[in-house]
Amino acid sequence: MPYDPIFADSPGTGLEHQPSYWLATAGVLPPDDGPAPPALDTEVAVIGGGYTGLSTALHLARRGHRVVVLEANRSGWGCSGRNGGFARMAFGRLSFGDMVSRFGLAGAKVLFAHTRASLDNVRTMIREGGIECDASETGYLKVAPKPGRAAALEAEARLMQRELQYPAEFIDARTLQRDHLGGVHSWGALRIPDAIALHPMKLAAGVLRMARAAGATVHSSSPVIGWRKEGVTHLLSTPQGTVRAAKVVIGTNGYTPPGLHADLRAAMMPILSHIIVTRPMTDADVAGANFVTGDVLTDARKLTFYWRRLPDRRILFGGRGLISDTPGRTASHRQYLYRELISKYPTLDGIEIEHDWHGWVAFTRDFLPRIGQAADDPTVHYAVGYQGSGVSLSLYAGRLIAARIAGDASEPVIEAAGHALRPFPLHRLMRLPQRALFYWYRFLDSRP
Ligand SMILES: Cc1cc2nc3c(=O)[nH]c(=O)nc-3n(C[C@H](O)[C@H](O)[C@H](O)COP(=O)(O)OP(=O)(O)OC[C@H]3O[C@@H](n4cnc5c(N)ncnc54)[C@H](O)[C@@H]3O)c2cc1C
Predict the structure, then answer these.
(1) pTM (two decimals)
(2) Of 192, 194, 143, nearest to 169 (Cα)?
(3) pLDDT digits over 81-100, tens only?
C-alpha cells in the first residue's frame, strides 16, 4: 500500500531525501546527531525535523533550554525540503479580503501584521544564520487565468491599499504580459511586493546548522512510535529506546501519524502537492513566453497552480490534484502538470521535464493553521495545518512556541491560530469525497 499519512503509523525510518531538483542542487548537507540513543532525558522533545521543529529547537536552545529534535527520516525530509521555495506573507490561503470576512477588519489587520512579521522572521533567520539559500527579495503575483478573474484581484489590491496603506497593486493584462509574464492565461494580476524566492532545502539545512550551533540536538532516523505519560513526564518511544521529556512539541504537519496525539487525530487532511521542473529555458523560450519575472506566481483558481523561474532559468511548476502516491498516478499527474504548463505557455511545447517530486501538505477543516497547546495538557504544543503555504509561518510558529515554552511574553500570540482543531468526520474515508471535490474544483476552474 502506498504511503498515506491518513493511515500510516509513521512516515518511515531513516529514509533518504526524495530525489528532487532541490536535492540535486543543495550541495553537501550538514550532519545531524544520528539516531536517538536508547535512553535520553531532556526538557523539551520536538517531534519532526522540518522548519517548525528546527525553528522551535533553535529558539529554545538560544534561550538556554535543553531540547532534542526527533525526526523519523532526516531533517528537511518532509515538505521543508521539497516545497516551491516561495516565502510569502501567508496565513494558509486566506487573502486579506478573506481575513476581513472571517475576523472583521480589526482582526484582519492584526493577522496581516503577523504574516508580515513571519516574512521578516525568514529574513532575520537567513541573516543571523548566514544561510546561503539563494534567497532573492522579490514579489508575489496572483495571476488571473481568465478575464473574468481579474476584477476580484483588482478589488483585493484596492482593499489592501485602502485599509492597510500597503502598496499592493493591480497589474492589467497588457502590462503583465509586457513587463512580467506572457502566455495565454495572463489576464492581469494582483502584485504583493513582499516575498522571497529561495532554495528550500538549503534553508532547512541552514536552520539545522543554526539549531545545533545553538545547542539543540537533532536526531534523524528516530520516529516517535509510542507516547505515554508517567506522572508529569512524557515517554516517547523510538526504535532505539525511550526519550523522557517534560514538554513535547509536535511539528509533523502533513506527515502526522493518526495515533500520535489525540488532539490531532483526524484533524488534518493531508493533500499531495506535486512539482515539475523543466530544463533551463533558452533565450528563444524566454522570449516566446516572455517569462522575465523573478516574482513567485500562483493563479486565482480553486486547484491553484504555483510556479516561478529558477535562478538557472528553469521553470518550477506545481499544483495539487494527485490523490495517491503510486508510481502510475504520479506519472500521469506529471503529464497533467506538463499539459497545464504548456496550456499557459504554448511556445514552450516540447520543453523537457528534468525533475518532479511531491509531498504532503496539511489542510484543516476551517482552512486555518494552528499554533496551539493540547486541550488537557499545557506541556504539549503543536503547530500544524499551514494549508500548503507554510514556509514563513512554520519558521515563525517555531519561534512563537519557543517563546511560549520559555514564558517570554514579549513575543505575540496569533489568536486566529489558537482555537482547538476539529476532526474531519469519516476521516479514513476522505479520499473518496476528495476525488469528487477535486473534479468539482476542476469544473469551477474551467468556467470563465
Ligand atoms: C510540493 C510542495 C510545495 C510547497 N510549496 C510551498 C511554497 O512554495 N511556499 C510555502 O509557503 N509553502 C509551501 N509548501 C508547504 C511548506 O513546505 C510546509 O508548510 C512547511 O514546510 C511545513 O513545515 P513543517 O516543519 O511543519 O513540516 P514538514 O517539513 O513536512 O516536516 C514534518 C516532519 O515530521 C516528520 N515526522 C512525522 N511523523 C513523525 C514521527 N512520528 N516521529 C518523528 N518525526 C516524524 C516527517 O518525517 C517530516 O520530516 C509546499 C509543500 C509541498 C509538499
Answers:
(1) 0.98
(2) 192
(3) 999 999 999 999 999 999 99
